[in-house]
Amino acid sequence: MTRPSFRFPDGFHWGAATSAYQIEGSPLADGAGPSIWQRFAHTPGMMANGDTGDIACDHYRRYKDDVQLMKALGLRGYRFSISWARVLPEGTGRVNPKGLDFYSRLVDQLLENGIAPNATLFHWDLPAALDDRGGWLNRDSAHWFAEYAEVMFKALDDRVPRWSTLNEPWVVTDGGYLHGALAPGHRNKFEAPIAGHNLMRASGAGIQAYRAHGRHEIGVVFNIEPKYPYSDRAEDLAATRRAHAYMNLQFADPALLGSYPPELREIFGEAWPDFPEEDLELTNQKVDFVGINYYTRAVVKHDANAYPLQAVSVRQPNRTHTETGWEVFEQGLTDTLTWFKQRYGDIPLYITENGSAFYDPPVAENDALDDPLRTDYLRKHLKALHRAIEAGVNLKGYYAWSLMDNLEWSLGFSKRFGLYHVDFATQKRTPKASAKLYARVIESNGGVLDT
Ligand code: BGC
After folding, report:
1. pTM of the entire predicted model
2. Is the pLDDT assigned to residue 37 strictly greater than 80?
3. Which of 122, 374, 417 should be mutated for ligand 1, with most atoms under 8 A from CB?
4. What pLDDT is stored for residue 451 in this prediction?
């Protein structure tokens, strides 16, 4: 028998991902404190169509059914995030046992169904009480995070084999502190580098806490978007270098190399502080793996008016773009993984998010929902992943974003990334064609991609 060319290594970890505020709903139930996303979503004008996470996918109440959706796909792993303010309503100090209990029940449910939990401690929903104390601008945030992390490790590390400290610190600083499109909605060039630095100190402090209290694996999740120059003119090459340093190196370098790239000073100018050396020792903790979220690439051109990078992304003609305007570019996934290994060494890697928002037609009467563009995206990216493995990347697993349609942050429910369609009026879940393909991929360990 000839071996199908797209079969993945034995034991490859197939999963799907979500995050707390995007799916749970009931954000204030059972004694939870408000998060910055609760506040932001309830501030007029911040969210598309005035959408909020008040109900979202109602996962807080339907988690058992949702675990059955995962089981139907054959998932080996499920990546979710923990809402810090459910567990510590004031962010530090008093633990809310009911909040903790929700995650404990979810984890048990996953394990009973043969699905390995992968818990992210911070996927953007900072407790509002901590924002009142300065949020990520306060240097104490590293200690707050370590305190919270320790509570979680003590409660769940006996059952959770894989943890991440942060999800996508770049998005927190760029969206939350520089451009203001995401919570907490600040627009301040002087704040963004500080918030980013404290996030990475927090991640380091969380990893240190894990070494004291945990016995499995911990890592950190970055969104990596490879940057390609628009032309070989010197100014476009320099713009590409800046864009890459800003989005990709600003967080991975302090975590994995203990340094910052020099371009950050070029970009931020007087707003880039001299961070103390010992901080970079804290950020640079040994990780057991790195999670990479990959969605698209950027083709970068110099533009003196673009703040603060002096660089813009140029939309590529004659290419497929998703509903979030992102070019479908699967080669970028292979390139990202091989580049990451080259720069940071042979760290075990997971793709912790990858997926696409496309318009979905209404669910048909026979419960069918054809999503050819999403299916095509999935197929292409899984093949690109396979090519990275063949090129020697130590890739352990893949989590599709997302298990189901959910609240796409300030874009509300208008953008659907799910393998399962969610009817937000009835909460009915329906597998899309992409979900069916993914189930066959998992069952055949990639073999079905040959056909
Ligand atoms: C985030 C998700 C988000 C997805 C699609 C990632 O930046 O981690 O929460 O829904 O991309 O935009």
Report:
1. 0.98
2. yes
3. 417
4. 84
